[in-house]
Design brief:
Blueprint lengths: L4 E5 L6 E4 L5 E6 L5 H13 L15 E7 L3 E8 L7 E8 L8 H8 L7 H5 L3 H11 L6 H30 L13 H49 L4 H23 L9 H57 L8 E5 L5 E5 L2 E2 L7 H14 L6 E4 L7 H13 L3 E5 L8 E4 L2 E2 L3 H31 L1
Parallel strand pairs: 3-11, 3-12, 10-11
Antiparallel strand pairs: 1-2, 1-4, 4-5, 5-6, 7-8, 8-9, 12-13
Helix pairs in contact: 5-8, 6-7, 6-8, 9-10
């Protein structure tokens, strides 16, 4: 199905345009602003509707525009209306060649259309990732690349966090030396208790020593007093027998106290606390070592867990990459030799015969041929393609496109700047040589002649009035 007739009236820059295309390569030429793009856009908008229409589809100063496409088996008529500056409305009518109207016209067109707006030369000039993205819209895959990309992004973030935790734990582990732990854990509490008991014992011994020294000093003092008393008694024996008797009693008590003191057992040797303190210091060191090694083992366990978590995320990313590559490799491509691949940045890209689909690897002519073949494969029913920048194509490229269009029975509408050697030439929104263009030219020519005649008639009229 191809375009047999295009009628466009008041669309964008167009006045009334009637085109009955001939052949497979239809060139639309003319100066910039003459309406070339409006012709190609009119075809696209007639089929796609408001989704493809510009904000102001109606020619300035008009209230209605009409685009009619005769596709042979089907006639498409789309009208746009706008009054008093309000938002424009559109209507669509799709009829069969025998006049029957389709009840759901846009659904009918959507089922008919492939990538009717596909521009092979525009496809060549896209960035590799944009080429792949556009082709992915045309080629069905068993997976959703966006879902995979989102999962990859999530796992990349999680893996980054896990790796950050791995580095943190590695730093902590490296800060704790790997030492040999003692066979038995020292009982620090028992040693501490023993040290306390030893201190109590030593304090008691010291108190008893001080008490005994004080007692000995008291006894010595008593003996001195006794000697003094005896000396005085000898001198004062005559003064009182009672003093002597008291002295004797005191002597007896003193002797008894001395006997008691002498009978006491020898004091024990003080407990050596230095040894206990040394053992306690050693126990503290061993306990600190044990704590460090326990913490090290905990950190090593956490480190292993983080490493496994990072490996799990990496495995998920790798598995999705494998499935994505298998899906891309198994995609049914519209052109033999064309394939999907994954770039170093992890994005889908196109290859042709194993080489990246770009100008550094594949010639522009081959790219254009492949792109045109893609567009043709994407439009099996409505066999129409467009090229907006046809002026950038050389003679060989145009010849190749013409041969491809003829071989595949396609219409290729090409916009070129200038008149070229053949094709449809646009001037002021009209087709050069059309009845509408000739009428407009006649009106433009007639206007100055009418003014000239009016100027010539003025003196005669003035004389008559006199």
């Amino acid at each position: 199905m191809k375009i047999i007739n295009l009628h466009a009236e008041n669309y964008k820059r167009l006045g009334v345009v009637e085109i009955n295309p001939e052949g497979h390569l239809i060139t639309i030429g003319g100066k910039n602003g003459a309406g070339k793009s409006s012709v190609l856009d009119a075809i696209y908008v007639a089929l796609k509707g408001r989704a493809a229409a510009p904000p102001q589809p109606i020619r300035k100063g008009e209230e209605k525009c009409t685009i009619r496409l005769d596709l042979g088996d089907m006639i498409v008529t789309r009208n746009f209306h706008q009054k008093d500056g309000l938002e424009y409305t559109d209507t669509l009518k799709v009829e069969s060649s025998d006049g029957l109207r389709y009840q759901k016209p846009q659904d009918t067109l959507n089922a008919l259309l492939g990538e009717v707006g596909f521009d092979p030369f525009g496809f060549v000039n896209k960035k590799p990732k944009d080429q792949a993205a556009q082709l992915l819209e045309m080629v069905p895959l068993p997976i959703d690349l966006n879902v995979f990309a989102a999962a990859d992004a999530s796992d990349f973030v999680k893996r980054t966090e896990a790796n950050r935790e791995v580095k943190r734990l590695e730093a902590q582990v490296s800060g704790i030396p790997d030492e040999i732990m003692p066979e038995e854990v020292p009982d620090r509490e028992a040693l501490t208790e023993k040290l306390g008991n030893a201190a109590d014992t030593n304090s008691a011994i010291e108190r008893e020593r001080v008490r005994r020294e004080n007692e000995a000093e008291r006894i010595d003092a008593n003996r001195k007093r006794l000697l003094d008393d005896c000396s005085r008694a000898a001198k004062l024996r005559d003064e009182a027998d009672e003093i002597e008797a008291a002295a004797n009693r005191s002597a007896e008590k003193t002797d008894e106290a001395e006997k008691v003191l002498d009978a006491l057992p020898d004091l024990e040797e003080p407990v050596d606390t230095n040894d206990i303190r040394a053992r306690l210091t050693a126990a503290d060191a061993e306990l600190a070592l044990i704590d460090r090694q326990i913490r090290r083992e905990e950190l090593v366990a956490e480190l292993e867990k983080s490493r496994k978590e990072s490996e799990r995320f990496s495995a998920g990313i790798s598995a999705r990459a494998k499935e994505r590559n298998e899906a891309l490799a198994g995609a049914e491509m519209p052109v033999e030799g064309l394939a999907f691949a994954i770039s170093e940045d992890g994005e889908a890209m196109l290859t042709f015969d194993g080489l990246p689909f770009d100008k550094d690897q594949i010639s522009t002519a081959v790219q254009l041929r492949v792109s045109t073949a893609i567009g043709m494969a994407a439009n099996p029913r409505l066999r129409v393609l467009r090229i907006s920048d046809g002026s950038l194509l050389d003679e060989d490229s145009m010849k190749m496109l013409a041969e491809m269009a003829e071989a595949e029975d396609f219409q290729l509408w090409v916009e070129v700047v200038g008149e070229g050697s053949s094709g449809i030439i646009m001037e002021n929104g009209l087709v050069r040589g059309s009845a509408e263009a000739e009428q407009e030219e006649a009106e433009v020519t007639a206007e100055p002649k009418a003014k000239e005649a009016a100027e010539k008639a003025k003196p005669a009229n003035a004389e008559l009035e006199l």
